[in-house]
Amino acid sequence: MPYIPHTASDISEMLEVCGVKNLDELWLKTGAPPPCGAIALPKGKSEFEVIQHIKKLGQLNSTRLVSFLGGGYYDHIIPASVNAITSRSEFYTAYTPYQPEASQGTLQALFEYQSAICRLTGMDVSNASLYDGGTGLFEAMMMAVRITSKREAVISKSVSPIFREMIRCYSKNLDVSLIEADENGTGSNPDGICAAISDKTACVIVQYPNFFGTPDDWTEPLKSIQSKGVLSICSAYPIALGLLKTPGEMGFDIVTGEGQSLGIPLSFGGPYLGFMAVREKYMRKMPGRIIGMAKDIKGNDCFTLTLQTREQHIRRENATSNICTNESLCAIAAIAYLSSVGKNGFAKIAELCHSKANFLAQELNKINAVSLANDIFFNEFTLNLPCDASELISKMIDKGYAAGFPPGRYYPDRKHQLLVAVTEKRTKEEMKNFANAMEAVLWN
């Protein structure tokens, strides 16, 4: 039975108040377009025909471009096992596991995810995920504010401009000051960051590798930063940690990052995964929830929500978090991905990303008036171009390539630069054809 709350007498009474006789007259009086008449629907189709039709419509969404686009979100290979695991109803319909005796599978999967994030980052404790990389970085900043009772954060301009805009948005109505330290070419300028620190500074925020693709070594700068009683926060690209020194080895206090590259498709922008890991001494100041291992009355290993932050615990500005969103299914996708590729496979993926990026960089560097802006990079590098990068990107789309990201969109002095990313997915043939296509666009 349809839910129509108004009876005929109710409608008559309302029409009388409006001064009209019927609904058609009401529509005319409001000036709104009249309700549409009967819709001419096509004849019904069989299940098979409907599926084929939907597939054809879906293909219209795919431009089938070969992607060299990065900027924090990357086109990696995803093992088929990841989708097979996350498609299980036990995972994709699960709610918050408050009742541990009924949620051991989800709890164990998230415990393993936390363990993997700790090993990946070189940190002591991980939570069970956050909303995404940008909000995770904001959460880390507010965590530092709570720990130090200071209200200022120094953030490098080589941190993703998308993440910085998110932090500015969340901080707009808070008593927190953001000090942005200029980048140095494609480097993060540790000296400039140290110079910006004052006695009001709660933390410094950097990215590794930074937005331009440069993996700065923060080992020595962190000693100076931390000697001033300032916490250090790193937003890390997880795949790079399969090859580079970990944030934990360098001495960071808090590590966050975007986990999309860990088995999560680009999906037109989400849902994605924020990860966070910290030093053990800061564990109780961390937002989100932590899954712990315990023993049941028979001595068997079991899992439970050891620490948790939820909406009903919020105390306005004193809350551990005012976002309180985790991404359990995406976190399970991440641990499924890491388990599928394994320790050696993960390191191999990182090596492939780095070596293929070096190959493409050399090919592009041969093009007249094109040069590399980075001395060192992982899988993403910045090119100097003889033209506006946005114009080149538009022309390369016609050639079948998503050529990269134009930093000039956020950095006015970098309009002639292009950020190019390479993953293990790209073949040697694709990269050579890409370089030839770019040369043709620039000089033909």
Tell me what you see in this structure.
The chain has 444 residues and is an alpha/beta fold. The chain has two domains: 66-74 and 342-443, Alpha-Beta Complex (Aspartate Aminotransferase, domain 1), CATH 3.90.1150; 80-338, Aspartate Aminotransferase, domain 2. It has helices at 8-18, 23-30, 47-59, 80-86, 89-92, 104-121, 133-148, 161-171, 190-196, 219-227, 247-250, 328-365, 389-398, 428-443, and strands at 66-67, 125-126, 152-156, 177-181, 201-208, 231-236, 254-258, 274-278, 290-295, 301-307, 371-372, 380-384, 401-402, 417-421. Strands 2-8-7-6-5-3-4 form a seven-stranded mixed sheet, sandwiched between helices. A three-stranded antiparallel sheet has the order 11-12-14, covered by helices on one side. A two-stranded parallel sheet has the order 1-13. α11 (247-250) links the parallel β6 (231-236) and β7 (254-258).
